[in-house]
Amino acid sequence: MRIVFDAETIADRVRDLGREITAAYPQGELLVLGLLKGSFIFLSDLVRQIDRPLHLDFLIASSYGAGMVSSG
What we know:
Blueprint: H1 7-24, E1 30-35, H2 40-48, E2 54-59
Parallel strand pairs: 1-2
Helix pairs in contact: 1-2
């Protein structure tokens, strides 16, 4: 196993993404949605880099529909 992206590289990219999102949406409040559960750490870092008022919420996805077994 090897490290592909170190922590500093990831932090730099998250900071850049925050700046890009701030520039792309200069007015109003943003709604930032994350797909639970795997996104919450990344999203918490990202929203701290967005210089806009925002709301943060999460979605839960499943392929079960009305059944109890995955539909694939």
